[in-house]
Design a protein that fits this description.
By secondary structure, the protein is an alpha/beta fold. The strands form 3 sheets. Strands 4-5-8-6-7 form a 5-stranded mixed β-sheet, sandwiched between helices. Strand 9 and strand 10 form a beta hairpin. It is elongated and about 55 Å long.
Length: 245
C-alpha cells in the first residue's frame, strides 16, 4: 500500500522506517503535539479530500489502530460523506504493543478476565469529569489509559477519590516498542510521583490493576529481566504461532 501511495498524510508517531516504504510519495505531516492547536481535524479532513479529488492515491497513516482513539471513524465518515471511496487497514493498537513490549499481560485468567480502554484526555472543551469515575473505580479488572501522561494526577486522583485502593498496582510505559521505551512500576497512590521523578515523555500508556504487577519481562524496579538478546535455545512468544524455539 505505501509503496503505491502518491501522498502519505501521517501522524506524529509514524516511524521513519515505515515512512521510508513510501519512497516516491509526497509526505505530509499532520502530527498533533500535546497542548497545541496545530493540524485540527477539519484541516486534516480537507487535506485528504483535496488530494483524493485530484486523483491521487492517498494513504492516511496512523500510529496504531485507526478505530481505537485514532479518529478513524471521524475521517471515514467525512470521506464517505464526500463521496470518496476508501479502504480501512487494521493496525496494532497501542495497548497491544505496550502489553507485548513491557511483558504486562493485560488479561490473565488468574487475576483479570477483562480490560477496559479509556482515553486519558478529552476533546477540546471537555473535562475528564465527564468520565464515570465511580464505575471505573469499581471495576476489578485492568484499566488502560491512553494519552494519559499529561493528566496522570487527575486520573489517579479521581480513581482514589471514588474508592479505588491506593495499593492497586500501576505501571506507565513510555515510548513503547521503540529503543527509548521505559517502564515505571508503582501503585495507584504513587505512580504519578514516580512518573514525574523519571520525567517520562509522551506518548505513554497508564496501566492500572493487578496485571501491572505481573510483568514477565521486568522486575519491580523496571529493569529488564533479560539483559541480552534472545539466542539459540531461548524461547520467544510469537503472536501468531505461539511458543517457538
Amino acid at each position: 500500500m505505501l509503496g503505491d501511495a502518491e501522498v502519505v498524510i501521517y501522524d506524529r508517531l509514524a516511524p521513519v522506517e515505515v515512512l521510508n516504504l513510501a519512497a516516491s510519495a509526497e509526505l505530509i505531516s499532520v502530527g498533533k503535539e500535546p497542548g497545541t492547536s496545530l493540524n485540527c481535524q477539519d484541516d486534516i479532513n480537507r487535506l485528504m479530500s483535496f488530494h483524493a479529488l485530484r486523483g491521487k492515491k492517498v494513504v492516511r497513516l496512523k500510529g496504531g489502530d485507526p478505530f481505537i482513539f485514532g479518529r478513524g471513524g471521524e475521517e471515514a465518515e467525512y470521506l464517505s460523506g464526500s463521496g470518496i471511496p476508501f479502504e480501512i487497514i487494521p493496525g496494532v493498537t497501542a495497548a497491544s504493543g505496550v502489553a507485548a513490549s513491557s511483558g504486562i499481560p493485560l488479561t490473565d485468567r488468574r487475576y483479570s478476565s477483562a480490560v477496559t480502554f479509556v482515553a486519558g484526555h478529552r476533546a477540546a472543551g471537555a473535562e475528564l469529569d465527564s468520565l464515570d469515575w465511580t464505575s471505573l473505580s469499581a471495576l476489578g479488572h485492568t484499566l488502560v489509559f491512553y494519552m494519559g501522561i499529561a493528566n496522570i494526577r487527575e486520573i489517579t486522583g479521581s480513581l482514589l477519590k471514588h474508592g479505588k485502593p491506593g495499593a492497586t498496582p500501576a505501571a506507565i510505559v513510555s515510548r513503547a516498542t521503540t529503543p527509548g521505551q521505559k517502564v515505571v512500576f508503582g501503585t495507584l497512590s504513587d505512580i504519578a510521583v514516580r512518573c514525574a521523578q523519571e520525567a517520562l515523555p509522551a506518548p505513554a500508556l497508564l496501566i492500572i490493576g493487578e496485571a501491572a504487577s505481573h510483568s514477565v519481562l521486568h522486575n519491580s524496579t523496571g529493569e529488564p529481566l533479560w539483559a541480552a538478546p534472545l539466542g539459540k535455545g531461548d524461547t520467544c512468544i510469537h503472536p501468531s504461532t505461539g511458543l517457538t524455539r
